[in-house]
Design a protein that fits this description.
The protein is mainly beta and 168 residues long. The protein contains 3 helices and 13 strands, in the order H-E-E-E-E-E-E-E-E-E-E-E-E-E-H-H. The protein has a single domain, classed as Jelly Rolls (Sandwich), CATH 2.60.120.
């Protein structure tokens, strides 16, 4: 493990995330939106917004998952992060989260609610540190980790990437 990865894990108090990588929630709005004021896809009240630090390295990818809110990824440090998104119409998009704007990288990438997505560090022997902001706020009840067979049936033309970014 890289020295800088160890530094961030220790100093940002990062823990393993179920989708892969490491995270720590750093903000959860105190105010809530009541269930009756949210779309029907939500099972209860939700905080206005939440934010985490999220770190990926060469040994840890973010597996395909989806959530019920829009999510914004913000680039902080390290190598470019490649984010793959399968939109519900079977369309695969690849976004590059990083500092090199002249090469098509973006400092922020938005993943729309309900879309399957995953991510990896582009640089070999490197890491990427990002922030993720979710609104309405993240709740693990709104999180679905992809099952390989389910995604393969729904999106057969993306077989190669689905096999790579799901657990067997």
């Amino acid at each position: 493990m890289l020295k800088k990865v160890k530094y961030y894990i220790k100093n940002l108090e990062l823990k393993k995330h179920p989708e892969g990588g490491y995270f720590n929630e750093v903000y959860r709005a105190k105010e809530e939106i009541k269930k009756e004021n949210l779309p029907a896809r939500f099972s209860g009240d939700r905080n206005f917004s939440t934010s985490i630090y999220f770190l990926l390295d060469e040994e840890n990818i973010s597996h395909f998952h989806k959530i019920k809110s829009d999510e914004i990824w913000h680039f902080y440090d390290g190598s470019t992060i490649r984010i793959y998104t399968i939109k519900n119409k079977d369309e695969l998009s690849i976004g590059l989260l990083g500092r090199n704007i002249s090469k098509g990288e973006q400092l922020q990438i938005i993943i729309k609610k309900g879309n399957w997505f995953c991510a990896e560090v582009v640089g070999k022997k490197d890491f990427g540190l990002v922030g993720c902001t979710v609104s309405p706020g993240f709740d693990f009840e709104d999180f679905t980790l992809a099952k390989r067979d389910t995604l393969l049936k729904k999106f057969p033309k993306h077989k190669k990437i689905i096999k790579r970014f799901t657990k067997g």
